[in-house]
């Protein structure tokens, strides 16, 4: 009886190990689907698929928001494909800001490594959670909630942000309202802004309509 149990247990262990897939390095030549990229053939995988050097240098903050986000998502770092994780670098010049935005597909953890950042998010109950973060501080932003980051120092501030998805998605509220061809009358009606304000914001962000 004991031999039978041991034999069956061994089969189960062998079977479970056989079904484990250590990784699924994304094949960027294939289309991305809801579950991510198709897996690259294991024989073509190298150590470089698990190493990303693109976060060494600061991003270009010479733009309207004086900020830059350098992503290491599945599209840039195929090794994270299928693993439920990714990372990015956030650079904020003095007065820099990452406007109100959401990540529909992931929660976010932010770690400040230089300077100081004022960060916050708004819950679905419209409660505001706001904190001035210093070097070494960490803040969590739950999935799908509007949040932002602002440089709170007179020097360049840097943070690294990790996500609970290899493709967290991004929607910036200002761009969704004023950087496309959504008719101005609808924007005015749904935001309670006057026509002149909507026109001015569309002019700044490149929207039409």
Arithmetic mean of pLDDT: 91
Q: What is the CATH topology assignment of the largest domain?
A: Jelly Rolls
* Poorly predicted runs of 5 or more residues: none
- What is the CA-atom radius of gyration, in angstroms? 22 Å
What is the CATH level 1 assignment of the largest domain? Mainly Beta
The helix count comes to 4
Number of strands: 10
Q: Report the CATH superfamily of the largest domain.
A: Jelly Rolls
Describe what this molecule looks like in 3D.
GO terms for molecular function: manganese ion binding. This is Germin-like protein. The protein is 21% helix and 28% strand. The longest helix has 18 residues, at 2-19. The strands form 2 sheets. The chain has a 5-stranded antiparallel beta sheet, with no helix packed on it. 26% of the residues are buried. It is of the alpha+beta class and 209 residues long. It folds into 2 domains: 24-169, Jelly Rolls (Sandwich), CATH 2.60.120; 170-209, no CATH class.
Q: How would you summarize what this structure contains?
A:
This protein is an alpha+beta fold. The protein is built from four helices and ten strands, in the order αββββββββββααα.
Layout: helices, strands, pairs:
Layout: H1 2-19, E1 67-72, E2 86-92, E3 97-102, E4 108-114, E5 116-122, E6 128-134, E7 138-141, E8 146-151, E9 157-163, E10 171-172, H2 173-178, H3 184-191, H4 195-205
Antiparallel strand pairs: 1-2, 2-9, 3-8, 3-10, 4-7, 4-9, 5-6, 5-8
Family: Belongs to the germin family.
Binding site for Mn(2+): 101, 103, 108, 147
Binding site for oxalate: 103, 108
